[in-house]
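In the laboratory, one determines a bound structure by crystallizing the protein with its ligand and collecting diffraction data. In a computational setting the workflow is compressed into a single prediction: the sequence and the ligand go in, and a structural description comes out. We illustrate the idea with farnesyl diphosphate.
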Amino acid sequence: MSNRPSHIAIIMDGNGRWAESQGKSRTNGHERGAETVRTMTTFCSDHPEIDRLSLYAFSTENWKRPKLEVEFLMKLLERYLKNELPTYLDGNIRFEPIGDLTHFSKSLRKVIDTVQNETANCNGLVQSLALNYGGRDEIVRAANALRESGPLSVESLGNALDCPYDIDLLIRTGGDHRLSNFLLWQASYAELFFTDTLWPEFSVNELESIIKKFKTVERRFGGLN
Ligand code: FPP
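The predicted complex, in structure-token form:
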């Protein structure tokens, strides 16, 4: 028996440290990070055993960063989505944002909507970008949406989340061992892999080797084997 990495989620950390190590600006690290996003998305889209790739692109806490860095990240996201529309369509990749999008500028929301609508009929990989996303915020929004509907259950609340899909494999780059408010509910039975590699240097080879290890893990979901 080998596990199927149907839903892979990644906390993409280390752009800033990578840039520093190269004597470059943090924004340059984010640019390189966006290239890694494209590489990983294409890799996952070429592997039919992977159905969903969820990437932590901007957290509810990232607004605390310096204004110029936040502005740069917003522009980078907008540019990425605009430029990558052909990649989504050619690869039959559906784009599904998660998070509270109401805080973004009109122009960014328009691009998000366009890419989501244009790719709505793609039925290959689902690439989900977490944008102004926080796991706690997602759970509170879902609970609020259901507050008139009687007692909650694990199923009803789970289905009301932005992302109602359990994670199989969760990877964090950049050396830290924490979840940082990413997909808290969905990570309940995820296999966690941490690597010191900084996100701009994360490679297809490393992802392949993590998937290989993941396939051999015994997953018990609280039961016995
Ligand atoms: C963490 O690096 C990275 C982020 C703030 C989020 C991820 C953003 C990208 C990969 C770039 C843009 C994404 C898309 C989808 C176009 P960090 O700045 O926290 O690195 P550090 O811990 O080394 O400072």
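The chain has a mean pLDDT of 97. Keep in mind that any predicted model is a hypothesis to be tested, not a measurement.
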